[in-house]
Design a protein that fits this description.
The protein is mainly alpha-helical. The chain has one domain (about 1-115, about 130-295): ABC transporter involved in vitamin B12 uptake, BtuC. The protein is about 70% helix and about 0% strand. The protein has 14 helices and no strands. The longest helix is centred in the N-terminal third of the chain and has 29 residues, at about 1-30. The termini are far apart. It is a multi-pass membrane protein.
Length: about 300
């Protein structure tokens, strides 16, 4: 039972990275923008956050630096695709490639660096509950923050006027423009906000999840987060559930190795990516269902006055 409790705790921790990044990408896509650069963006944010903690000793500053790096790169991406009308998919891929290379270059001197001693978090009383206490109530605050973020984003998108405007821009930017809304500025704000959340997820990896810097340490999580938005049919609550599902699949490989399952480690390492492909293949069998839930202008450029 104790091993399963540890697996549950590790699942929540791993799922948090995917949840925060996927919720950020969800904001982008609700405004009609596809950002394929999440992987590179998260890598740059990971090294920015890690380096900041190394030099300042403050995790808070590290998370802010990660969010700032993510927002900055996302703003450049937004300027290219929204104002210069570059292809969203090609620009996103370029951002991803840039992030992989730049983070590797910037992180050379931090490979052997160590962070200050990590603080162990625990919720009073609840963390002492046998089995479930250590799994559920001794997590980093951002693990609970991901749940709060999901609830806040759900309220924002479906209960607030601003969220309604954002969704209208993603559905029909021409109509929103005709009503006097600044479509391009709204899209840029959504892209920057989404980039900041992807940056927070990247910083969480290098500061809290695995407190070290290794080249390429995001390890495909940006792509999985991107797939999660489709898997969740663009609904925040489903994004969170999907993140925990993929987080569980990721941690399952270590659990199976720990209990002595005789399977090559390479096969176990493939599990999260195989699960991603299988889920997307199953969802794609019903294109009408995707079309109903997908923002109508997703990936389509908007030209004011055209």
């Amino acid at each position: 039972m104790e091993s399963y409790a540890l697996l549950l705790g590790a699942t929540l921790n791993a799922g948090t990275v995917l949840a925060i990044a996927a919720l950020g990408l969800l904001i982008n896509e609700k405004a009609g923008i596809v950002n394929l650069g999440a992987e590179g963006l998260m890598l740059c944010s990971a090294i920015a956050g890690f380096a900041t903690v190394v030099h300042t000793g403050s995790d808070t500053m590290g998370f802010l630096a990660g969010m700032g790096a993510g927002a900055l790169l996302a703003a450049v991406f937004g300027w290219l695709v929204i104002w210069l009308n570059t292809n969203q998919y090609a620009t996103g891929l370029a951002l991803s490639l840039f992030g992989v290379g730049f983070s590797a270059f910037a992180g050379i001197s931090y490979v052997q660096a160590k962070l200050p001693e990590r603080v162990q978090f625990a919720v009073p009383v609840l963390s002492d509950i046998p089995l479930l206490g250590p799994a559920l109530f001794r997590q980093h605050p951002l693990v609970y923050g991901a749940i709060v973020l999901m609830l806040a984003l759900s309220w924002f998108l479906y209960r607030s006027r601003t969220g309604l405007v954002l969704r209208s821009v993603g559905e029909s930017p021409e109509s929103a423009h005709a009503l006097g809304y600044p479509v391009r500025r709204i899209r840029l704000a959504a892209v920057v906000a989404g980039g900041a959340l992807c940056g927070l997820a990247g910083a969480f990896i290098s500061i809290a999840y695995t407190p070290l810097w290794v080249e390429g340490m995001v390890a495909g999580r940006g792509w999985i987060a991107l797939a999660l938005t489709t898997f969740a049919t663009w609904r925040p609550a489903r994004v969170l559930l999907g993140a925990y599902l993929f987080g569980g699949v990721t941690m399952l490989q270590f659990h199976l190795q720990g209990v002595g399952v005789n399977v090559p480690s390479q096969v176990l390492s493939m599990l999260p990516y195989v699960a991603t492909i299988v889920v997307l293949a199953l969802i794609s069998r019903n294109p009408a269902w995707i079309r109903i839930n997908m923002p109508a202008s997703l990936g389509k450029p908007f030209h004011p006055g055209a």
